[in-house]
Design a protein that fits this description.
By secondary structure, this protein is of the alpha/beta class. The chain is built from 17 helices and 7 strands.
């Protein structure tokens, strides 16, 4: 079965160095919890993260992955004076990898969101000139959600280009981390505020800010992709609709209606049959695509999970590749 995965990362060293200010948003031991020498999960080496050729493709072949949609790691923490050039270079690097291996890779554009007008133009350049299939945005920019009006150029351009935004987890602000996650062993706190819990709650909140601020009334065709089975949101749709009726929000539709018409979800390597079935029953099969979160999670087991799912063959094919081919224009 053809398998396209949508949340597969690449590390640009220049961007990592220029984003050093992100340390103010992280516990001192954040990087330690992702150090492969410690043997924790989600700890790939820099060499694996930077591989866009033989090693990555060999791993895909060994585990039944037909195509990866590549994405650079967070550009949301870049300082404004360097963001434009660094992101341009990153997108050029990913586009070059797609050119070398057009049948194995596609790519999401990274955006210098600290410069919203520039980011909108970079998205258009990525889509029109580099054949990129959308954008990936990782968390807040200067502690602000995309619902802030300063980011309207990005949302408007994505809608006009008819490409999705993959809203990926980002590190919670320092204030949130201090209130919600501190007081434990530093390594536990570091994971608690990020990959173990905080990233996902933050991303769900980020999406709900988009809904409640009226973004999807303003841009009704805008499509958002949420990993990790929707970053907690699908599992609270009944509660959200009870708590936020349209007579309270003033929105055109209920939250569930926005989710079912403006959101796609992927597993991000959380290979849970219970969560898959819940999302199918709640969102429908045409709103689910596939992702591994490589190399933070290994490709092993990705194909097996879908093979073992209790789904009709045509549904498996849609989740594995068909829906992504339509949404991302990959066919």
């Amino acid at each position: 079965m053809k398998l396209i995965t949508l949340e597969e990362h690449y590390l640009d060293v220049s961007i990592a160095r220029a984003s050093a200010g992100i340390a103010s948003h992280q516990s001192p031991d954040f990087h330690a919890t992702f150090d492969p020498k410690l043997g924790f999960s989600w700890s790939p080496s820099a060499e694996v993260l930077q591989d866009l050729d033989e090693g990555r493709i060999a791993n895909m072949d060994a585990n039944g992955i037909s195509m990866q949609v590549l994405s650079g790691l967070s550009t949301q923490q870049l300082p404004a004076e360097h963001a434009g050039d660094l992101v341009t270079n990153l997108n050029n690097t990913l586009a070059a990898a797609v050119t070398r291996h057009p049948d194995r890779f596609a790519a999401f554009a990274s955006l210098p969101t600290v410069l919203p007008e520039h980011a909108a133009d970079e998205l258009e350049r990525g889509v029109r000139d580099l054949s990129m299939v959308g954008a990936m945005i990782m968390g807040r920019t200067e502690d602000q959600f995309l619902s802030e009006t300063r980011f309207d150029p990005i949302l408007a351009r994505a809608a006009s280009l008819n490409v999705p935004i993959y809203l990926h987890p980002g590190v919670p602000p320092a204030a949130s981390s201090a209130i919600n996650y501190a007081g434990l062993d530093p390594l536990v706190t570091a994971r608690f505020q990020t990959a173990g819990w905080g990233w996902h709650m933050e991303t769900g909140i980020h999406f709900l800010h988009l809904v409640l601020s009226g973004v999807f009334d303003k841009y009704p065709t805008l499509q958002i992709i949420l990993g990790h089975w929707g970053e907690m949101v699908p599992f609270f749709l009944d509660r959200l609709d009870e708590g936020f009726p349209t007579r309270l929000t003033g929105l055109d539709r209920s939250i569930a209606e926005y989710v079912k018409s403006n959101v796609y979800v992927t597993p991000s390597g959380m290979f849970s049959h219970a969560q898959l079935q819940y999302c199918i029953e709640t969102l429908g099969t045409d709103r689910i695509m596939y992702s591994v979160d490589y190399p933070f999670l290994d490709n092993g087991g990705a194909a097996k999970f879908l093979d073992e799912a209790k789904l009709e063959p045509d549904v498996k094919e849609a989740i594995a590749h068909g829906t992504a081919e339509i949404l991302l224009n990959l066919a």
